[in-house]
Amino acid sequence: MESSESVTLYGWFRSSCSWRVRIALAWKGIKYENIPVSLQKGQQHSQEFLAKNPLGQVPALCIDGFVLTQSVAILEYLEETRPNNPLLPKEPKSRAQVRRIVETIVSGIQPHQNLPGLDIPPGTPDEWKLAWSKEWAQMHIKKGFAALEQMLKESPGKYCVGDQVSLADVCLLPQVYNAKMLHVDLTPYPNIVRNNEELIKLEAFKSSHPRSQPDWVDEGHGINQEV
């Protein structure tokens, strides 16, 4: 199903979930309007945005006359309605391998980077919150990357699953960026590093990079354009 209606993405430059959707839109050649929603400024809690996503989370994609939220649901919808430049293999085993990697990242790793998900007692000083959240995130990234490294060994190729770019790659690149931002040593994960280096060569992955977004702000993390 194709639609001539305009497509609008509400997201934030540094949001992993928003970045995944930007990659898929670019990969499939879908033109869209990018409307920034600053999580730092709390714009996700505005009445205007809550009308689009009552959870107050980015991304939200206005497409085909309705609003779709949750990055994986958006990715699956784009794949089903815009089958050009597919992001899922045809063979069932490979599709399952792709979805396994996707779930490992979006459910097993990325949520642990979010401060609201941590059970930190009220009144804890901000510097303690940040220190604990960083340590917590690093621990779960390392655990998740160890699992991902093994999965990549089981599906050798240029990208995460064989030689075809897939939803697994769409999710991997933003997660590696987050790992670097948190100063995680990637030396133990050579397959992840190799795949990441291949992905950032692709235009859809480069153009969707946080630095290329209209709301980009240099936060001083020392992360280069090449993630």
Automatic annotation (TrEMBL):
Q: GST C-terminal domain: from which residue to which, for each copy?
A: 91-218
Q: Name one Pfam family in it.
A: GST_N
A GO cellular component annotation in the UniProt record = mitochondrion
Pathway(s) it belongs to = Amino-acid degradation; L-phenylalanine degradation; acetoacetate and fumarate from L-phenylalanine: step 5/6
Residue ranges of domain GST N-terminal in the record: 5-86
List the molecular function annotations (GO) for this entry.
Answer: glutathione transferase activity; maleylacetoacetate isomerase activity
Q: Which PROSITE patterns match?
A: GST_CTER, GST_NTER
Picking any one GO biological process from the record gives: glutathione metabolic process
Cofactor(s) in the UniProt record? glutathione
Print the keywords alphabetically: Phenylalanine catabolism, Tyrosine catabolism
Its EC number(s): 5.2.1.2
**Which reactions fall under this protein's catalytic activity?**
4-maleylacetoacetate = 4-fumarylacetoacetate
- What domain of life does the UniProt record list for this protein's source? Eukaryota
- Locate the transmembrane regions by residue number: none
Query: Which family is annotated?
Result: Belongs to the GST superfamily. Zeta family.
- Matching NCBIfam families, A to Z? maiA
What is this protein's record name?
Answer: maleylacetoacetate isomerase
Species annotation: Ramazzottius varieornatus (Water bear)
